[in-house]
Amino acid sequence: MVSTIERPVIRCEADGQLTIDAAQRAALRQLMRCAESSGDRTSAEWQAAYLEAVDAMLDSAGLCDEERAPLREIAEVLRQNGGVGDDGDPDHRWADDYARESAQVSYLILTGVGEAEAAQRVARDMVRRKIPLPQHGGDARGWRRLLEFRDRLRHGTAPAAAIETYRQRLEELKDANRP
Description:
This protein is mainly α. It has helices at about 20-35, 45-60, 65-80, 95-110, 115-130, 140-155, 160-175, and strands at about 10, 20. The chain is elongated. The termini are far apart. Residues about 1-10 have low confidence and may be disordered.
């Protein structure tokens, strides 16, 4: 498709200075604010807001509505389907559930149950409650993949919101069972 941009986003003046007009500057500021926000970048709302900021930037650059339509469609799909993970992990959609269940595994281990037994108990309970077991990991056994997800939480490589959920749930379990 041939672009209908009527003016360039950035112009190079005769003296070598780069300039952008006020609308482009405002759209760029909106994009930068969104990019620098402290929101969870794996959330659908953050991702959709970022795409809307990109859409505003492209609008200020002169792209017509028809050319920007696919971007708006992607933003809508993100809102409806819960976003995409920042690392392509298929488990991101269930990350909070896995974090809570991983906290349960950690708590059982703290009470003296072996790691494998704790993970198996929790995995059986997850299946009973129709919570899918994690897909990420190289093991065919779901309880092992749950342990791998727990390790990701403990080492800080899982989504930030899931790490916080794990920590909070583990503290709740500890507090609820103090003598």
